[in-house]
Amino acid sequence: MNRNMKKVIHTICALSVLMGAATLQAQSREIKISSIPANADQFIAMRDEIATTPEGGAAMFIVAMLGFSKSESLGMQFLTLALDQYNVGSGSAYKGYAPSSSIMYHVNRLNRQNVWSYTGFAYVSGASASDNYQVSAPYTIITSRNKYSGDESSGRVKVFVNVFGFSPRPITLKRNEKGIWKAYECSSMFVNVPPPASSSSSDPL
Questions:
Q1: Neighbours of 114 (CB within 10 A)
Q2: Interior angle at CA 29, CA 168 and CA 75, nearest 5
Q3: What is the DSSP string of 172-185?
Q4: What pLDDT, in 10s, does the model give residues 115-166?
Q5: Between β-strands 166-175 and 97-99, what pairing exists: parallel, antiparallel or unpaired?
């Protein structure tokens, strides 16, 4: 292979890498959350506005996690409303419904560990364990997709949410008949995050 041919191949490879990086960058999206809703009605209003895309559905799942930092009752209401019907059963969290037993396995584990005060904030851009996850609203959730994320036309898409201390975590969203994207597979979102530097910090707001 002559020198000119090697230069051509090198140039093509370099362009391919740059194009691939540009594609990945284009797939990255930021969702702004103005504040943590004060009640279920506010959550529904926010969800119906934001969760019209898979990324928006993922962001509303994070909002549900943030709800637990206020109270277990509020978090349970929000989580019920953020989940696909596959993950919801009968219960008392919200109007006769509640997260399924498979979801409650994760919720109860985090309850026992007493980590809800900061877990949701680990998914907020700019929050870090070294700063005790102190971050002010509006909250920014950064998501991305890859070539295996799927197509929205299928009604099911996997997105990845940035989280402090780890690689972006996957969550699969499913679109319901109203066009709202809800959490279908979300177990990775319940995996522990680094604890805050100060164990005495109980309110990351």
A1: 8
A2: 65
A3: EEEE-TTS-EEEEE
A4: 999 999 999 999 999 999 999 999 999 999 999 999 999 999 999 999 999 9
A5: unpaired
Which of 108, 156, 171 shows the shortest CA–CA distance to 98? 108
Measured on CA atoms in the order 104, 173, 121, 92, is the torsion positive or negative?
Answer: negative
Q: pLDDT tens digits, residue range 1-42? A: 555 544 444 444 443 433 444 444 447 999 999 999 999 999
Q: What is the tally of helices (H) and strands (E) in the chain?
A: 6, 7
**Domain segments of the chain as ranges:** 30-190
**Strand 156-163 vs strand 139-144: parallel, antiparallel, or unpaired?**
antiparallel
For residues 114 and 156, give the distance between their C-alpha atoms in angstroms, rounded to a whole number: 32
Cβ atoms within 10 Å of 98's Cβ, excluding its own: 21
DSSP H/E element including 107: helix 101-113
Contact predicate 145/160, CB 8 Å? yes
